Amino acid sequence: MCIRDRVKQGYETLVDAGYSPEMAYFECLNELKLIVDLMYEDGLGGMWDSVSDTAEYGGLTQGDVVVDEHARENMEEVLEKVQNGQFAREWIAENQAGRPSYTQLRAAEKNHEIEAVGEELRGLFAWQEEEDDEEESAEVTA
After folding, report:
1. C-beta of residue 48 within 8 angstroms of C-beta of residue 56
2. Which of 11, 85, 112, 117 gets the highest tally of CB atoms within 10 A of its CB?
3. Residue 137 scores a pLDDT above 90
């Protein structure tokens, strides 16, 4: 499973537990960018310095419960498939067959509830209006 899957699972877990889809979106997807930006800018240690002590404690004590050693084993298996050419052979066969699995998986991703919630919420962000204005200005001058 990749980060995308973890985001969706976290979202689904919160919604199933009674949290609003909007709150689940912010906790699982919107916060992800903030955390990644902190890690990018200041490293892992800097990220921990920037979040609350509660968030740090939870991450340090519960993170391995959510993503345990099996994740590492799975990563090693996937890497082996890449290194030995199995992944490339599967991708070539998928393309030769007209991409049936790929098309189905993409459609499922686009139809996940988090996408509709996210689209609605992103439309409310002030920065979204600024980007739309910049795009319109670029189109007018082109």
Report:
1. yes
2. 11
3. no
67 φ/ψ angles, rounded to the nearest 5 degrees: -115, 95
The pTM assigned to this predicted structure is 0.75
Rounded-to-integer distance, Cα 30 and Cα 40, Å: 16
In this prediction, residue 141 has a pLDDT band, given cuts at 50, 70 and 90, of low
Enclosing H/E stretch for 122:
helix 113-122
Interacting residues of 62 by C-beta distance below 8 A, sequence separation 6+: none
pLDDT value for 66: 85
Identity at 27, one-letter amino acid code: E
Alpha carbons 126 and 129: distance in angstroms, whole number: 5
Helix axes 3-16, 113-122, angle to 10 degrees: 90
